[in-house]
Amino acid sequence: MTLDQLTVFSILAVVMILFVWNHWRYDVVAGIALLTSVYAGIVPMDHAFEGFSHPAVITVACVLVISQALQSCGVVELFLRYLAYARGSITTQIAANCGVTAFLSAFMNNIGALALMLPITLRDAQKSKRPASKLLIPLSFASLLGGLVTLVGTPPNIIIATFRANNVGEPFSMFDFTPVGIVVALAGLLYLVTIGWRLLPGRPGGSDQDSSEQFHIARYISEVRVPPDSQLIGTSVGALELMCEGEVAVMLILRKDRRRMAPSAMELLQPGDVLILEGHSESLQPLFENPGMLDAGAEVIDPDWLKSPDVRVIEAVVMPNSAIEGLSMRSIGMHQRFGVNLLAVAREGHAARTRLKHIKYKTGDVLLLQGETQALEQLCQTLGCLGIKNRGLEINPRRGVLLIPGTFAMGIFVAAMGWVPVEIAFTTVVGILVLMKMVSLRAAYRSIEWPIIVLLGFLIPIGEALQTTGATELIAQGILGVSDGLPVWSLLILVMTVSMLLSDLVHNTPTAVLMAPIALSLATGLGVSADPFLMAVAVGAASPYLTPIGHQSNTLVMGPGGYSFGDYWRVGLLLDIVIVSVAVPMIMLVWM
Predict the structure, then answer these.
(1) Which residue in 165, 167, 353, 504 has the most C-beta neighbors within 10 A?
(2) How many domains is the chain built from?
């Protein structure tokens, strides 16, 4: 083993440990790894940032923009409006929801497809009085299965296709993944519909309950009165909330038989005002330290009374790469910026026990919000949250409902015919949408998941360093030495299984980047085509079913479904076995 090989293995080992530790963001870890590789001399300085011009990076960015355009134009909602969901049995309900999600995911970003179907599935669960915990993991897994079907369905497919172009001479085309992917997806869906959901608990999860039950909100709502001689007369609502360090929200002001729902932070208190406050009892203490500031009321307020046609209480889930991820309530200033009150936070289906000001939001957290409909919609769009329990926040079909999917279909056709590379075809699609004002430049940039783009740009040079240092050949020789005499299909199982496990622990994108060169070296050592091994990596990297951290789709349903860590591997382990059992024979049949 040379010094360069030892260095690259050491860097990768540290990277994997940091990925699993999950204390730092993936893109930050990848950036540190790239800089370390440059200073160590295994990545040339003039090649350090070539990853950002890689076709895979461009393609992923374009797919994200197009997916957001499809979501916002309303074409999917228009389609779903006429889709009659079966209410008779839970099996047909899961089959309908998962089938539609998988179909959408074949042509959209996985998260985009899930985000469209999540509110619909929760609404179905509520109407049919079935626990959402039986429905949401199958929905998440269906979004991942659908991504196996086409080139644009998931980033690992795009990475593998461009890797093949750089090393074999020709990329996988748009539908080269379909023969294997569609059979695997159908087998996976059949498992989820018949067996998978039965392995999930029927516990009341995030959105099975009424908001007041899930968040225990009634315990924290109180009524106070502003006496005529109060020191708070003339004080603004915002200043009152600051006195309690942001831990108390003024939900309503009763003034002379008039109700002011979700009052502005600039609203001034007047004598006789009755305030409906939300907050822990200890948070209210500063308001009662001096006699005469406020008079405590004795009523317990029904949370449903705090709604009106214009002011609503909704649940919203924190989406992956949301602007509030890692931030606290104090640093966001929801009330000051949007006029929206944060009433409570639920994590993994249970109300958070820590004080609101100390909570740092994570993907999958469910927020209980109160405010005017327009303000809630603006908050969700700006901060990257998904309203999961109030259909008033749906985006209505608008101009572009046919032009956007038509332009996307044109791009798919041009790429599938091989007339231009897929990155050129999809960049053209995005350009047309922007020029036709179907998508604004601001919306296009906002829809790109920049941490994924940065992660790819940083990791691609490291993946190439694995090849240039001979590290992949060393790994391949070690595997071939141990497996001497074993059939090719057994090595395909090994490659796919390792890719699955890595994807469960880290992320599907780095898994594809790091496993592709190893698969190529294995195929070269065996003297066989690289295509079966690259396909095995693509399927394995796109199959993170054992943990909630393996893919953002899994994380997104954790809060609304009230899932624990063990719920994922309970369903995912058998699904992994199904996928390997189906995918390997199909790869042998199609690509050997």
Answers:
(1) 504
(2) 2
Distance CA 97, CA 92 (A): 9
In this prediction the pTM is 0.77
Shared domain check, 229 and 163? no
What is the distance, to the nearest Å, from the Cα of residue 433 to the centroid of all Cα atoms in its chain?
24
Residue 21 located in a structural domain: no
In degrees and rounded to multiples of 5, residue 257 shows phi and psi of: 65, 15
Reported as a single tens digit per residue, the pLDDT across 484-541 is 778 999 999 999 999 999 898 878 888 999 899 999 999 998 999 999 999 999 999 9
Instruction: State which of 335, 358, 387 marks the end of a domain.
Output: 387
- Terminal Cα-to-Cα distance of the chain (whole angstroms): 32
pLDDT tens digits, one per residue of 245-296: 767 788 888 887 777 877 888 889 998 888 887 766 566 666 666 666 776 5
Quote the pLDDT of residue 291: 63
Query: Hey, what's the torsion of the CAs at 7, 12, 14, 19, to 10 degrees?
Result: 170
Domain boundary among 387, 413, 436: 387
Helix (H, G, I), strand (E, B), or coil: what is residue 301?
A: coil
Q: What is the DSSP string of 34-87?
A: HHHHHHHTSS-GGGTTGGGGSHHHHHHHHHHHHHHHHHHHTHHHHHHHT-----
pLDDT band at 123 (very low <50, low <70, confident <90, very high): confident
Q: What is the tally of helices (H) and strands (E) in the chain? A: 25, 10
Q: Decide if 119 contacts 391 (C-beta within 8 A).
A: yes
Per DSSP, which regions of 184-269 are E strands? 221-225, 249-255, 258-261
Give me the CATH number covering residue 308: 3.30.70.1450
Say whether both 181 and 57 belong to one domain: yes
